[in-house]
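Researcher: Next entry in the queue.
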Amino acid sequence: MIVGRFRSPSAVQAAICLVCGAIVTAADNAATLATVGPFDLSFAGRTILVALVLLVVFLLGEALTTPPDPDAPRTVQRRDGGRDGRPANLAAALRHAASAVAERYHALPPVWRLVVPALLMLLCWSPIIVMMHPGTIWYDTGDQIAQWYGIEAYGQPAGSISSHHPVLDTIVFGSLARLGDALAGDYQAGIAAYILAQCVIMALELTGVCRYVARVGRPGAGRAAGIALFAFFALFPAFPIFMMSIVKDSLHLLAFVPWLVMVAETARTRLTALRSPRFAIGFVALSILTALTTMTGLYVTVLTLCCLPLTRIGSAARRHDGPARADRLRAVSCAAVTAIIAMIVFPAAVRGPLHVVREDQNQLLVVPMQMTARYALDHPDDVTDAERAAIDRVNHVPFEDMASRYNPYLADPIIQYSLRDPTGVGDYLRAWASMGLRHPDSYIQAFAALESGWFALRRTPLNVTDRGIGLDELAQAAPRATANRIWFQIANAISPPFSRMPAYRSNPDGQARAYALWGFWQSTPVLNVLTLTALWTFIMPMFLLFRLARPRTSKGSRAPGTRTALPAVYAAPLVWSLLSLLPNAISVPLKPTASRYMLWALVVIPFTLALCACAPNTPNASHRKQEKEGNAR
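Model: Structure for this entry, 633 residues:
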């Protein structure tokens, strides 16, 4: 019974909800008005209302995801399906059918236990696969393929490859197009075949995630969590819609999903999984692929691997310092090898043969330059000649033009693909710091507006990307604010360099039906909650923190409502991935790019929730149990 696991909130949990309410309210203001205030009675009222709603939802979610007490007395069930003397024939029939299906499933060979559910998932995805075939080409992907064919892009000379996007992705996409040319006389044939293969591989990987949860979880709870996870992956249309696209983030997911499971297994086994050479080699290989397929993936992967050596070793293992040190050394080695290959060896190996042109560090200045633009809007006269000169030396858009080009939700109009003079970054950062000390309010407002899409439930109705947006224009449009929902690119986006290649054939009628399907999810009550961006990038992570904040009833207690004791490293991929959202040039989905950045959360969040709900057994826990039994004897 859920009621038996429902408990009143602790003071810390109530405080978490109140903080969430304040952040969501401030983000809603920033996403509609480009300012976090005003902090008036209306702000306080909305904060309390959001906090109360979240508190109720979080408590219900905690009850649903809390494993039942294994020592609690269970209801005796009769053979006829009755419970406590009451007939339940339909329930008994359903349980019997489910048991028969489970028996047949577990009788299958191991490979088919993975393939059969994956085929079922693909069957659920098939309507969208048919609608979107031959697949969606993204703007940036077209540029990458064009460069592979020797067409000038990103201002780089013909025959060179820009490092603005991960070079490995350019190699993969360009090679697929060339393969289509070689085998079918049409580059699009190679791309279309890859997109279909991408869907099949992702279905297999997501099925593997569900099987892992069912395997490591407590009997009963693990199976239920795995089934729930499978239903979400199979029925939520975001997965097939995105996997029917060819873009660096979809390729990244192919490596990221199995890597995520291997991180969890390494944490669950307290690093002992790395003692298997095959596991360790596969883990490093996936780590390298995950690091090389997106720019932020490099940092998420390496930083997560650096956290693994900090995993708490069980008491039984601590008695033998040698094995424990060896386990930590293996974890350190995995991080070191991944970092060296991804950051040094691979870039050096491809730079010469592929004529890779190294980009400057303009992406690191996205947020600071956006703050400078807001400063130019708020305090145009409070800037020295030296500060103005430092800004104009680095950026292509001069300080005097920043106010008119400032878009609170998109940094692209302010900072371009490159810097005017990369050697002036030091002087600019000193000017940036000096200006921020004088007027930190402008910097706070700029940062809040740029990142508001990850936290807000509402957003401006304006989808302006080619010019600045004035604060007065935002205020006039604010009454028409819309829900801040995930926005997918389903139609093709053809870049100018890619347009010089043979025309990319599309399926506009099918793509229109796919848009209508996603629109149905966005407008249908209950279902539309899953399409809110902030649900995945802020609210659900805060629910995990809320659940972790539940105090134990007593030392060693496993009573209902207590938090599940999982190694802290379980959270490392989630934490670093969330932090990787902050340096991006966009968060409010004025265009599909913003949604592309956060789609990893659709896997990481449910996976983490499922692990919490199924209470996975760890070798550390079994060792403690054996030790207690030995001491009792």
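Model: The chain has two domains: 109-357+491-625, 362-451.
Researcher: Noted, moving on.
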